[in-house]
Amino acid sequence: MENAVIQLRGLTKCYGKLKAVDDLNLVVNKGEIFGLLGPNGAGKTTAILMMLGLTEPTAGTAEVCGYNATANPIAVKRKVGYMPDSVGFYDSMTALENLLYIARLNGVAEAEVKERAHDMLKEVGLGADINKKTGAFSRGMKQRLGLADVLIKQPEVIILDEPTLGIDPSGVKEFLALIRQLSRQQGLTVLLSSHHLHQVQQVCDRVGIFVGGKLLVEGNLDQLSRNLFAEENYVVDITLKEPVATPWRLEHALLQMEAVEKIAVNDNNIEIACSQNVTPDIVRFFVNENFDITGVQQKEYGLDEIYQKYFENNLTENTDEKPGGFFQKSFLQKSKQ
Ligand SMILES: Nc1ncnc2c1ncn2[C@@H]1O[C@H](COP(=O)(O)OP(=O)(O)OP(=O)(O)O)[C@@H](O)[C@H]1O
């Protein structure tokens, strides 16, 4: 693909009998922020190390900025900024001194190194901390300095491995906003790995769910939720003042409505999956049946539900299984003709 900055074809890495990465095929395009989302041990770091040419694939290829990462790791290193999950600095040196050191190591010309380092520190929000020793930096400040380290050589793509690990929630928000801003302003391609779905959801254009070395699905959130929840187009969540005394009677009555597909009753909470949006009819039904409604909510699917579908439905243990059991497990379902 013309626009592809990262192109992985059948990328596989075995450690003995363990397939840490299993036939990974992925394209990340220029200017995109792609989130590799998966639990601990999914194989994210191994995949990244192969993209950087730091470990050799057992099979397949990783092409980054047009270079085969295994055959040409130095060329890839020139184009890619990599921030590992734990960034180290010289504690007794200031932020500026640390950054100048990294910039020089990366071959930034002496004539411009100081100006660029100052600009970069301002850009990542450390303008006021230029002369502070990094030993006194918080984890969030260290991540910002790590980002400056990565960006100082003006890479085409940055790869961030668990970049928000150990930062407090407001720091995470600011850090992710910064990544997005930099990507949008400079057309920078970003691949970030994380197991924090909420964070990935905030910042990424597209995500891939990676489990047991396999990429289970990839796409933007809309596509993922449309694919995974095609059967569960409209889900209405009704909260009642009191728990339902005879759930089976309620379920039976609700299933008489044509659009109602599945129902789950949990004390005073009822989730109803429908083929069309019949929320007004459902509310009318409850009122007519003399239930006191305290809440009505139409459910929207985000990464939470997508993640839950994969990780809490035991699909992690059997990735060959086709997704689809989210509602079937807990919901009373209308039998199909
Ligand atoms: N050098 C190695 N030798 C043997 N096994 C390894 C090696 N590196 C990683 N593994 C194994 O490969 C699998 C994938 O590990 P990897 O670090 O890539 O996962 P990850 O998704 O990055 O996890 P985390 O989020 O915990 O960093 C794990 O089971 C891990 O134990």
Outline the structure in words.
With 337 residues, the protein is of the alpha/beta class. It folds into two domains: 216 residues, P-loop containing nucleotide triphosphate hydrolases (Rossmann fold), CATH 3.40.50; 104 residues, Alpha-Beta Plaits (2-Layer Sandwich), CATH 3.30.70. The chain is 35% helix and 27% strand. The chain has twelve helices and 15 strands. The strands form three sheets. A six-stranded mixed sheet has the order 6-7-8-3-9-10, with helices on both faces. Strand 9 and strand 10 form a beta hairpin. The longest helix is centred in the middle third of the chain and has 18 residues. The chain is elongated. The two termini are 45 Å apart. About 6% of the residues have low confidence. Bound molecules: adenosine-5'-triphosphate.
- CATH class category name of the largest domain: Alpha Beta
The number of domains is 2
Q: Please tell me the CATH architecture of the largest domain by its name.
A: 3-Layer(aba) Sandwich
Please count the beta strands (DSSP E, at least 2 residues each): 15
According to CATH, what is the topology of the largest domain?
A: Rossmann fold
Given the helix and strand composition, which structural class is it?
A: alpha/beta
Largest sheet: 6 strands, mixed
GO molecular function, one term: ATP hydrolysis activity
Family: Belongs to the ABC transporter superfamily.
Pfam families: ABC_tran
Protein name: ABC-2 type transport system ATP-binding protein
